[in-house]
Amino acid sequence: MASSVLVKIKEEVTCPICLELLREPVSTDCDHSFCRACITLNYQSSKGKEEEGICPVCQVTYLFGNLRPNRQVANIVERITEFKSSPEEEQKVNVCAQHGEKLQLFCEKDMVTICWLCQRSQDHRGHQTALIEEVAHKYKEKLQIALQLQMANEKSCDERKKYLQKERNYWENQIQSDVENVQMEFKGLREFLDSKKKSELQKLMKEKEDVMNSLAESQNELEKQREAVRDLISDMEHQLDCSTLEMLQGVNSVLTRSQTLRVKLPKIIPRKQRSIFRAPDMKGMLQVFQGLMDAQRYW
User: Fold this and answer.
1) At residue 49, what are phi and psi to the nearest 5 degrees?
2) What CA–CA distance (Å, rounded) separates 139 from 248?
3) Among 69, 97, 160, 246, whose CB has the most other CB atoms within 10 angstroms?
């Protein structure tokens, strides 16, 4: 129980940039906390206007000069570093379930933590292994790179979502404008012209329905992709917040998903694809109608 509580507390005082316990914690205007060195480096590499930075967590701008030391968080970090797990808890986590030996090695072929007896067993004999301490940093870096990629994918999804909404507005306004023009042109005509009006409106409504359905499908597909990316990001962040052993035991699955996940471009209907709308030739129709009416007089 104490170990579980400690993990949750550590999550609250972990730097979102380096993913380590906060060192010299400072808070931004949006109340997110970072290591002073980490947020300074981030500000120097990504600042926009003078003295203005972008929060790596919520993307809200903040004034670098407003960074304030967070002594409360610093005190929590200090207490955590002083805390030691009980020998029973440490032994339960760090001991091989099969051999009862301490887990000190990592098999890079099978991507699992093992003990020295596992290394000599039939299952891992001849595999490339290394001390856990030697490989942990390497896989943390891989997770960091994969996390940045998926965060970029998430941002891309958000941008495309905005673009899709603009497209929906454009098509809806454009077609609605055409509908109004048709209604104005057909106003006052008799039954002969009413049938023409109905035909034109049906075409426009069908076009609007097809375009809206197509864009809605694209938007739904993009939402699904974004959810998949968000789920993967959540899993990656969870892996990075786990203990070293738990992180290494699950890193292969997360990295494999990251390598196979690709965000597909949504299907957009080119605006140029639609021919320019032309209102019906009302004068010509009236002439035809008048001709029919004149002919009926001689029937």
Assistant:
1) -70, 165
2) 7
3) 160
C-alpha 161/C-alpha 142 separation (Å) is: 29
Sheet containing 105-107: which strands, arranged edge to edge? 112-114, 105-107, 129-131
Lowest mean pLDDT among 3-17, 231-245, 278-292: 278-292
Measure the CA–CA gap between 132 and 73, rounded to whole angstroms: 29
Check whether residue 212 and residue 252 sit in a common domain: yes
DSSP letter assigned to residue 21 = B
The whole-angstrom separation of Cα 250 and Cα 236 is: 10
Beta bridge partners of residue 106, listed in sequence order: 113, 130
Q: Does position 185 have pLDDT exceeding 80, yes or no?
A: no
Is the whole model's pTM more than 0.85, yes or no?
A: no
Report the C-alpha gap between 153 and 179 in whole angstroms: 38
Contact criterion met (CB below 8 Å) for 125 and 136: no
Decide if pLDDT at 1 tops 50. no
Rounded average pLDDT over 35-46: 87
| Integer Cα distance of 26 and 67 in angstroms | 6
Q: 100: domain range?
A: 87-127
For range 89-114, the mean pLDDT: 80
Query: Is residue 143 domain-shared with residue 227, that is, in the same domain?
Result: yes
pLDDT of residue 36: 92
Q: Cβ atoms within 10 A of the Cβ of 178, count?
A: 19
285 and 207 within one domain: yes
* pLDDT one-digit tens code per residue, 51-69: 888 888 888 888 988 999 9
